[in-house]
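Task card 7
Instruction: Convert sequence to structure tokens.
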Amino acid sequence: MQDANNLTVRDVAAALESWAPPSLQESYDNSGLLVGTMSDPVASVLVSLDCTEAVVQEAIELGATMIVSHHPIVFKGLKRFNGSTYVERTVMAAIAHGIALYAIHTNLDNVADGVNSKLAQLVGCMPNSLKILRPKPDALMQVVVYVPNADAQAVSEAMFAAGAGEIGAYDQCGWVVPGKGTFRPLDGADPHIGIIGERESVAESKLEMVVEPWRLAAVLSAMKNTHPYEEVAHGVWPLQQVHAQVGSGMLGELPAPMEEEAFLDAVKSALGCNAIRHTKLLGNDIRKVAVCGGSGSFLLQDAMRAGADVFVTSDFKYHEFFDADNRIVIADVGHYESEWQTTDLIVNRIKKYFPNFAVHLAMTNPNPIHYR
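Output:
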């Protein structure tokens, strides 16, 4: 277990990134370390949905030297730092007080046990009914390597241990094809088998394994470190197969049907909503629920194709409500209200890795929207 007295930003980031790899963030996003360096020591961490001037001030008062937020304070390049915007002032305050800023945003949206899983359970869905609403394509790679038969088992085990061969609820998935490999060592080579200048023929196995992109580097390193050859013949390419445990939104089922009004009242209470904007109620019981933390209008068609009775999300524009077309109830609960549970997830993740480390949940409410 890591010594809580000697933690660095790198340690905290590693714990979070093993859960929500940065490679899973969307192209428009800016997750990761925004202010500070990975080697900076961390006295304690403050967790907040957003990073604002008030949140930085809270960190200063607590003596926290790292803020982990869901939303990044910086989404695009800053050309000057003169305090003319809240973004500049927030970043400047963090730098002035030696506070590292780290964001874990759409990569946490895209994992099966992230934002949307928590939201689905809060609105009443059964945990064992949950599945990704729009699984991510091209989120799996194929690795192929040629190994002498005598070493095939050792190389396979090393690759499996590094994370290769995991598909859904299965691991150590692989394919082995026997064959014969040929090569001729040239001057300057240091062959494991064979003589310089002479062609060698070896009984080999072709190993094929599926790998998630964020584990590829570790798998290739394990493969090369275990392989006996000086030059390792291998190939890597993307697969069109979708990744059932990675993607946008979540679909789940209630333990028992609920009337629409009763369901919306339960959601309002569970999420602490001041109000819910929704489409016309259809008079149907709610059984199947689609959710998306944050702005989810892009998943409306997915929710309808999945047969959801209601779609719980936020940030629908006026004309987008018409797209429900009397086929589904859209429940716009508010952006903050759909994602506040993210902070608890992050706190629990850090505490899981560093149980004796000080992790604070921000008392500052960063929600910029108010009701009256």
